[in-house]
């Protein structure tokens, strides 16, 4: 088993587009080195965003360490700053870091309002993914209710990226009828929680109870099942990373 150390962050100012497209990630004494998180040039300059990225990784690292039985953690991470942002003394010149070899891209949502995190993964189960996509809204906590804390979500997406692990939930059918009662699709079925509908305008969000759909007999479109943080049952990270059991 390895030992855990705090993550080291390197702020890299993007200068020229390199030709190297392969990931720089290496595993050294259980610590991931060479992780590159790039901020898209179309993202407005915001110092808070850089701190939010640091906070996410700082939270994710010990969670990954414990979830993998002390096998892995984030040893150092380079944050690639857009060239059109103002330069600062702490920004260093890139060595090999580019947008092409970035493991994570922070970009504005497309379409607007779609702040859900996801990992581009074209292969089968067990095959590595291509890139993790996050938005400034997600890092600011816009999806906290739906997905849980940013650090834990990052570990969930990291499992997609590095190990090709699939989700253990259904994005299309989130509820079903059992003996005329609406039930959430959960794994295991004894997971407890609440059903809510979240509506957002800009960065302001409100939640309300879900209403029934007279046609389907289930809940209205957009209704989400939010697991309670504390459970008597254990659940996989790939089902819900927000559960603290």
TrEMBL record:
Entry keyword annotation includes Signal: yes
Keyword Glycoprotein attached: no
Calcium-activated chloride channel N-terminal domain mapped to chain residues: 25-245
Signal peptide span: 1-21
InterPro entries: CLCA_N
Keywords: Signal
Protein name, as recorded: Calcium-activated chloride channel regulator 1
Protein source organism: Lipotes vexillifer
Gene: CLCA1
